[in-house]
Amino acid sequence: MESMFDILMGLPLFKGVSRDCMAKTVGSAKFHFLKYTPGAEIFRAGQPCNDIAFIISGTVRMTISNPDGRFSVSQSLLAQDVISPEFLFGKVTSYPCDVFAVDTVSILLISKTDYVNILLSDTVFLFNYLNLLSMNAQKTVEGILAGSSRTCTMSVIDTSHLADLAGKVRALYRLHPALNDIDAIQQYAGRRSSFHGYYFDLGHYMSNLDAGNEGCGLAYAEAVDALDRCLIYRAATPYLWQYDREEVKIDHYSGLSTYVLQNPPVSSDKGYEELEWYKDVAKALF
User: Fold this and answer.
1) Distance from C-alpha of 185 to C-alpha of 205, rounded to nearest angstrom
2) Nearest Cα to 102, choosing from 72, 55, 44, 58?
3) How many helices (H) and strands (E) are present in the chain, helices listed first?
4) Who contacts 259 (Cβ-Cβ below 8 Å, separation ≥6)?
5) H helix or E strand, kind and range, residue 167
6) Contact by Cβ (8 Å): 198, 259
7) Omega of the bond prior to 177 within 30 degrees of 0, cis?
8) Which residue in 209, 201, 208 sits closest to 258, CA to CA?
9) Three-state secondary-structure class, residue 165
10) pLDDT bucket at 162, cuts 50 / 70 / 90
11) What backbone phi and psi angles, to 5 degrees, belong to 201?
């Protein structure tokens, strides 16, 4: 098991410094280690950013909302990530987002005053911080110029055909057991996202049931036809929101998503089993 000293040496903003230099830093600066339980608030949007915050372990969710709260975007950060390092200095020095613990989270806080002294103590610390700020700024510019930051899926659905779709999908599901390997199914959230494992593409899931299974061909064709009749319009950008350094590529977009029971089971399965779609349609897989 790694010691806390080794964990600190592995943090991106501390990489490259000698052990002696790191030992002196730990001895001269105050390192505050805080632990948060799942769901606990870590920072609130608008709260002054007086410390630099490292994630030592666990996952946090950052959510930025517009002023009236009608629109929000979330991003997950993992161990070794830094929470909003761009807001430690500059015109706006308050957190732009709400930050909550997804699971049990350990955070290291170093005050702004102590961190400035660390930056001035060794150029390696300084360049690590400048490189992080530069990479974050460059990702934003590259995304704007390339259009890769566009993120949207859109569907217009004729709900009068949903009952027929349910019947055709149920008929297909009855011919095939549930897929054990769901990693190849199109999802609309990356592995770093807290929503990973929730949203699978319905059309792509059905096509994987049909692939190489004799007797499914007609039922699959009828299910696809029913799905097409439900969709008046559908479109998607090539990628969804980039969760940190991860791009969620959309190779398959049928216009409707579905939940898939996990193996081994997860807590969200229970809520899914209470839905009418599961009781009337998806249960036929089992």
Assistant:
1) 6
2) 58
3) 9, 14
4) 198, 199, 200, 268, 272, 282
5) helix 162-173
6) yes
7) no
8) 201
9) helix
10) very high
11) -75, 125
Is 90 exceeded by the pLDDT of residue 42? yes
Query: In 3-state terms, what secondary structure has residue 78?
Result: coil
What would the two tokens of residue 181 be?
A: 């390997």
Compute the chain's Rg from CA coordinates: 24
The answer to whether the pTM exceeds 0.90 is: no
Helix (H) or strand (E) holding 61: strand 60-65
pLDDT score of 120:
93
Here the tokens at position 81 are: 């990530």
* CA distances from residue 204 to 119, 122, 183, 208 in whole angstroms, order as listed: 50, 53, 12, 6
Q: How far apart are CA 182 and CA 269, in angstroms?
A: 15
Nearest C-alpha neighbor of 197 from the set 210, 211, 183: 183
DSSP state, 182?
-
Share of residues in the chain with pLDDT > 90 (%): 47
Neighbouring C-beta atoms of residue 180, cutoff 10 Å: 6
Q: Are 19 and 25 in contact (CB under 8 A)?
A: no
pLDDT tens digits, residue range 215-263? 678 888 999 999 999 999 998 888 876 545 567 889 999 999 999 887 7
Show the DSSP H helices in 187-283 as ranges: 202-210, 217-230, 268-272, 276-280
Q: Are 142 and 67 in contact (CB under 8 A)?
A: no
Torsions phi, psi of 74, nearest 5?
-115, 150
SS3 138: helix
Burial state string for 60-80 with b = 16 or more CB within 10 A and e = fewer than 16: bbbeeeeeeeeeeebbbbebb
pLDDT tens-place string over residues 85-122? 999 998 999 999 999 999 999 999 999 999 999 999 99
